[in-house]
Specification:
two-stranded antiparallel ribbon; 8 helices; TIM Barrel; alpha/beta
Length: about 250
């Protein structure tokens, strides 16, 4: 397991950062072939976004390419993954740099079932470089559940200098509430993703254990036209992955 150095704490004037932290590339079996690193970056810029996260299912294989593409275009990109836990719950795992994300990806890959992808059924899982050139296809199906429990995820991400955010909390499938029915504080999540139509006050009234939690809304884009349809603005010290993770840990 990779143990990266601790993130430094920021003491600076906060700025509003327009974010979409749940975007899939063509590496996700459900991601459109047009979701290449440069297409994603350029669409995010057209939408006026300051910070995006790449969160493919079960892999960080395209993270380095999109971080590089973003750096060329002047857009900050958070490398990450949408992890499917043992309980069939989806959690966004976000990291400060591509090295940490790729190390986490290798850890997860060892715990994915060895089920081959069927491109005719699920679609191809494309690995690209920073110029959108095809490097190959991931042969193992990435949407299956890894042998990692949801109670382990926050500490596991922290071991790779990252942070974990449960995905689409209010959805009727692949969420903590749909799988477990309750957000146990022992999971140590501080921020939760909810869908665009979700009303925070109603969710908290139904689940008082969420009182005091932070909520974010993202697009969960699988197609270019979905990028930026649901976003949020965070008060960060800078529009960077490191500043975001420091904020989400608080």
């Amino acid at each position: 397991m990779r143990c990266a150095p601790r993130l430094r704490r920021f003491r600076c004037k906060a700025v509003d950062v327009h974010c979409d932290l749940h975007i899939h590339s063509c590496l996700s079996p459900c991601g459109d072939a047009d979701m290449t690193p440069n297409n994603i970056v350029n669409m995010a810029l057209l939408c006026g976004l300051d910070l995006i996260a790449l969160t493919d299912h079960g892999s960080c294989g395209n993270c380095r390419a999109i971080v590089q593409a973003g750096a060329r275009a002047g857009l900050s990109v958070v490398p990450g993954m949408e992890l499917n836990c043992r309980e069939e719950t989806h959690v966004l795992c976000l990291f400060p740099d591509a090295d940490a994300a790729e190390a986490f990806g290798r850890y997860v890959y060892e715990r994915l079932p060895a089920i081959p992808n069927d491109p005719a059924v699920f679609g191809p899982q494309l690995l690209l470089d920073a110029s959108d050139r095809l490097l190959g296809e991931e042969p193992r199906l990435l949407i299956t559940a890894a042998d990692i429990g949801v109670y382990e995820v926050q500490a596991l991400c922290a071991a790779f200098s990252g942070v974990a955010v449960p995905a689409h909390l209010n959805k009727s499938a692949y969420s903590i509430l749909s799988s477990l029915g309750y957000c146990d504080p022992a999971m140590d999540f501080r921020t939760y993703e909810i869908t665009a139509s979700c009303r925070e006050e109603l969710l908290v009234s139904e689940h008082p254990e969420l009182c005091g939690a932070r909520f974010v809304k993202n697009s969960d884009a699988h197609y270019l036209e979905q990028i930026g349809l649901c976003t949020h603005t965070l008060s960060l010290c800078a529009a960077t992955a490191e500043a975001l993770i420091e904020y989400l840990r608080r």
